[in-house]
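Q: For a teaching session next week I want to show students how multiple molecules come together into a single three-dimensional assembly. I've collected the sequence lines for a complex. Could you give me the predicted structure tokens for the whole thing so I can convert them for display?
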Amino acid sequence: MKRATTQELKTFFESLGTDYDLRAPVKLHDGTRVLGGLDEGPLALEGGKIPQKPTSVFFPQFDEVFMVSKDGQFHAAEPVKKPIFVVGFTAQDLDCLEFIDKFFSENYRDDIYFNKRDGAVLVGVSGKCGKDGEFLKIAGGKCDIELISDGECFIVHPHTDKGKALVESLKASECGCGGVKMETLKEESDALPKDDEETIDKASELIRAGKVPDDFWNEIATRCIACTSCNLACPTCTCFEVYDREQDGKMVRQRIWDSCQLDGFMREASGHNPAGLQMQRTHRRIHHKLAADVERWGHRTCMLCGRCDDVCPTDIGIKSVCKEIVERYS
Amino acid sequence: MSVMTKTIAEETGGQIYQPLLCKIGSKRVLTPLETLFRIELPEGRELGHRPGQFVQVSILGYGEAPISISSSPTRKGYFELGVRNAGTLTGAMHELKEGDKIGIRGPFGTFFDAEKLAGKDLVLIAGGCGLAPMRSLIQYCEDRPSEFGKLTILYGAKTPGDRLYKEDLVEWGNSNTFACNYAVDGVPDGACFDEGQVGLITVLIPPLSLDVQNTVAVIVGPPVMYKFVIAELKKKGLTEEQIVVSLERYMKCGVGKCGHCAIEHLYCCIDGPVFWLNEISGIRGAI
Amino acid sequence: MKRTLTTCPYCGTGCQFYLLADDNGRLVGVEPSSTHVVAKGQLCVKGWNAFNFPNHPDRLTVPQIRKDGKLVEASWDEALDLIASKLKETQEKHGTDSIAFFSSAKTTNEENYALMKLARAVFKTNNVDHCARLCHSSTVVGLAGTFGSGAMTNSISCVEETDCILVTGSNTTEQHPLIGTRVINAVKGGTKLIVADNRKIRLADIADMHIRWENGTDVAFLNGLMHVIIKEGLADDEFVRTRTENYDELKTVVAEFTPERAAAICKITPEEVVNAARMYATAERAMIIYSMGITQHSHGVDNVKSCANLAMLTGNVGKTGTGVNPLRGQNNVQGACDLGALPNVYTGYQKVVDEASRAKFEKAWGVENLPGNVGLTVTTAINAAFDGELKALYVLGENPMMSDPDQHHVKAGLDKLDFLVVQDIFPTPTTALADVVLPAACYAEKDGTFTSTERRCQRVRKACDPPGKARQDWDIVGDLARRMGYDGLTYNSPKEIMDEITEVTPIYGGMHYDRIDQVGLQWPCPDREHPGTPFLHKGTFKRGLGLFSPAPYKPSMELPDDEYPFVLSTGRCYFHFHTGTMTRRSRLLDREERFPYIEIHPDDAKRLGIYDRFPVMVSTRRGEVKALARVSDIVIPGHLFMTFHFEEGAANVLTNNALDPVAKIPEFKVCAAQIKGAS
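A: Of course. Below is the structure for the complete assembly, covering every listed component.
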């Protein structure tokens, strides 16, 4: 396997720019890290997860559903000009993506999502490159290429044939340790604490067993200001609102991220609202990921990326709420 | 779960959000608020729906909304939508004229399964606007009465003036196919009501004589109605396995993606709108 | 994809985020700034949706001139030449003060500076004001009088460093959401919270005390607190002795406000007065957060001064975690005040009546004879128009038809004008009355700075082009000035304007773009090396000694009676901003609140046969509007609350144009109303 420096990886990514629409972790001028083009700021593979949901590459905040020209003809949203090459998914992010791939493909296939998703190349990032030196879990799959930091360089581990073919053009030295380094890193990854998993699974059990009373949700709800950040930052949140808007003489049907934390999310034209109380919406936010989706998909759909905890201004993200549930009701 | 009709799916080439433009064949005013639209697909094609399903109706510039189909697939060459002028889209729809084009996606959702209902005595209970989707099943029964046992229609509305499909109500009342019992919550000054009782729809249930083992009740109505009607039916001895409900939710996509209609793990658009009561009992917020 | 770091266009909290534009230059999203000192990677729902209105098809894209009663498309040359000649003609005929300019708390500092300079240097009038008149003019007057500076004394971060917070007349979680969340977190961490507000706002749910006084009895309550504090020896005697003056008068005035008397006026219990006084006064550090609930009264200045008195009495000024903290409602209302879009001051509150100030600005601007009389305010200008004294009005980015009290009066005033120019981003009820409408760039389409409620001057950056022929406000103003024969308003960029501002404005002396590139600075920031000022009045007040300015209780101007038995209060909701021009064109925000509504207590509703979500007719002596009833115990019996976002149910048809005698702020929070079911 190859072992590349950040500079070598940057050169590699740049060389792919003609064939791919490249998105990689870059640092913007106030220090915010985003998935952006290499022209937007220096490559910043270190620093852990990207604050915004990386799945927004395929399911952005705003998207066109279709357009109707002046002559009344329908025009489907255009497929992307170049396939997307995205770097920077953590192991949890890849779990999230795996789920929303399934979500968007089952029953009816969401062609707008797959316009971007089909043909995309996924590059995961793991190892010793988390925030403040934190070790990021090794994904070991679910992406085409994984970049595993050993603290100095990235071991480049292709997981798919496409990944292998692409990595051939990467100019970097071979790791040359006979796999010893990888072994050590994997051991370190396996040894990562599982506290968060245990807590959330326990909380999920308690919710499903009906052990969490409404009073609890009421209490959490008093701290919610309906900022919607938890939903908008969550890589497995897929809800959207649809509306028509005229643009340059054409009618464009558009969709934007929506949030189940808003009163209008379920409100019907009659005014009837099955989720008309903040408490019901707070309950839904957690219950959906930890109970409803378990029922529907066979697993919880919070992969513990921690983004809702980071963006929640009042500290009622899913991890923090689960901790409280376990402390109080188990 | 259903799939989008071939006719429309083929037309849009797998683009699940793209509507097919259909023609408004005719419009009939039902009440000051409600109008019945007869819609025709291009080239006389059939929508291919089942009773109880819905379509997503688009008016470009105003958006899209789910509307249940009011006519039975046994009536060929068109389908009908009974629409209340309640929101942006439905308001714009009321402004349209015969011959205007309207965008249709669908049909979507689960349906009143004639095969499972075959041979059963059916009690069809509709409240208010719930008669719109129920009408597709009533028409189906009307056209194929031999498939079912005894057919009873219960319909309740707020006032006589609010009653939908008044001509149909008369026709069904006069036909030998159905036993019809109607009610209104109240009669305003100056109005009269001699086609049934004054009272909530629940007053129509206790007097029914049911073959409890062989009866299925189907309920469609406003959210507040279900709890009370179900309680009355249970008193009559019906179990949750013998009750079918159709639920309404705010929806944007109709295909299980936008998330608005989720009731815990169920999506009203693809897992519903028609549910057997036992499928949703215990689900918070369903009823 | 292009990402542009900029400042949120909604409230005064001053969150920064990145605007995302696609390859066609269309805005497609928002990403919070993870490093920003206030936002910290977070945003409220309005911020998250701030990309959604700039490309709305309703945008004004071409200049329009009224011909034969109808607004028709015109060229910029045509429109600006007409404005120049009409304004000149009006002044020649009716005198220099026959025209007035309304600036805007939504535009940048540079643009406020440009418009105020246009009014003074070119048109020689001090008739320039902006909507701060309607929200915090009483703060500017009240705090300047007591402390010497009319701004929020402390920083937002101080909320995390205090032991007790008195929130009064501020629905913080809805109007300044991220500041509201700081309060929620502080309470979780043990800080005491007193919410003195008759609406059951979200913060009331977590408050240690929720005091639901009668609207308009603020002074009685605050005097009651001070009475208890003095009586129980809880005052900070050292602070009072060394840092303040006029204490004896305070003592005299509050002496009669026993808990019993205060409680009787406020319709609360004496225990509430006593307990609140103890809770606030015994805290090591206590802060007051207030907003429109304090300011928008005919006794708004008295309310503000009473807050200041309370803080001084307990020594809660001049250190972290304390202070009197008016939260400014608009993204740049602080800046618009700082930059002199006020009839009495140039930039940095340098008085127009002061000869030295005038001389300074005459020199800086290369003009002579700057006027020394204080000009008309937003509210008095409308009155002057109504009385036929004001003949022409230039409105930049304001919507007085919806934001000002007594809409019929405003319309009558505007109708009487000979000439009305409105420069805005969307059509509004005010542009509908204009003789010339100029299309302007919105926040996402321009460079400049906004100054947040904590006096933090931050960059605004251009993320996309304005639609059609719309132009940036400073550019339009400069063009008009040239047509008036003045080149001193011709700039190449907002940066040049800011460089000029730093030279003439001591408190902004160090606000150069290179210094505020990543993190904005808090004024006073007098020079290039100065690090900015997180809290004011450390060691000494701006005016030297803090001046106790006690006030007696004065009832509101219009109290309920048999004919109009309810107290009507107006304000904003979480999802909409001000007159709704932007938020009602943002899909999600519009969906959340789509209709005008009025809150009424269940007991009142029941008595009057009013049902939730059913239409009602609300009327006052000024007019009537239709709205949907929202039956809720968020209001107390006898009180109604309505938002003013909705053109189709405009609350300001109802409000009372009674003004505070000094600040000229209208009494939006109290008028007498009647309500009944409608069909």
